[in-house]
């Protein structure tokens, strides 16, 4: 049985893995989609120096699928930065306080939500110009990005298995479909902490 990680080890793991996952997802997206554009007929000419890379790989960015990938990577980056700051706080090194994090991520949450909403018109405008498979893949990535957004800014949806070798699947699904009560995520708690303090300050000003 795998030994449970200490709080410092867990925070280090979360900060690193969220960033690594973001980089891997971006690389996989570009490498996978690039395969669809490779002009194999020009490979020989490219090897001989008679064709350019642009001719061999006339890559065109598909915003229908790329935008939700960006959304997913954005949330992973936000998560990585949050966990890194939390780690610094636990180590008693220079870090943003709970109130400062709450103030910053209150704004980040709104901006992120707006970016998520913008995908709806992007999808509708581009869905007729791409294949059904690309539309299905795009929707799946978008839904996964929404789950990550909820996991960080609202309710915790990621839970380890008993051996700490993977993540549970059934438990978050029960929470999503309201078959089981969920708990606020750590970031959601810090945002609530900031808002509570902010409301108290406003109330005191009004009472003066």
From TrEMBL:
<feature type="transmembrane region" description="Helical">
    <location>
        <begin position="104"/>
        <end position="125"/>
    </location>
</feature>
<protein>
    <submittedName>
        <fullName>Uncharacterized protein</fullName>
    </submittedName>
</protein>
<keyword id="KW-0812">Transmembrane</keyword>
<keyword id="KW-1133">Transmembrane helix</keyword>
<keyword id="KW-0472">Membrane</keyword>
<feature type="transmembrane region" description="Helical">
    <location>
        <begin position="20"/>
        <end position="40"/>
    </location>
</feature>
<feature type="transmembrane region" description="Helical">
    <location>
        <begin position="60"/>
        <end position="84"/>
    </location>
</feature>
<feature type="transmembrane region" description="Helical">
    <location>
        <begin position="131"/>
        <end position="152"/>
    </location>
</feature>
């Amino acid at each position: 049985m795998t030994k449970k990680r200490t709080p410092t080890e867990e925070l280090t793991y979360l900060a690193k893995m969220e960033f690594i996952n973001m980089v891997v997802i971006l690389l996989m997206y570009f490498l996978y989609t690039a395969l669809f554009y490779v002009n194999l007929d020009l490979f020989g000419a490219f090897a001989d120096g008679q064709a350019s890379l642009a001719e061999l790989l006339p890559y065109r960015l598909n915003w229908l699928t790329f935008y939700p990938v960006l959304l997913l990577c954005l949330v992973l980056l936000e998560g990585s930065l949050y966990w890194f700051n939390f780690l610094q706080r636990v180590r008693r090194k220079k870090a943003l306080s709970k109130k400062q994090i709450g103030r910053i991520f209150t704004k980040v949450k709104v901006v992120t939500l707006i970016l998520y909403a913008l995908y709806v018109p992007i999808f509708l405008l581009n869905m007729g110009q791409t294949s059904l498979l690309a539309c299905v893949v795009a929707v799946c990535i978008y839904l996964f990005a929404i789950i990550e957004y909820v996991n960080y800014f609202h309710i915790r949806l990621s839970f380890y298995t008993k051996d700490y070798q993977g993540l549970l699947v059934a438990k978050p699904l029960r929470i999503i479909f309201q078959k089981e009560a969920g708990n606020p995520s750590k970031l959601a708690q810090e945002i609530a902490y900031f808002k509570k303090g902010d409301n108290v300050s406003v109330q005191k000003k009004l009472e003066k």
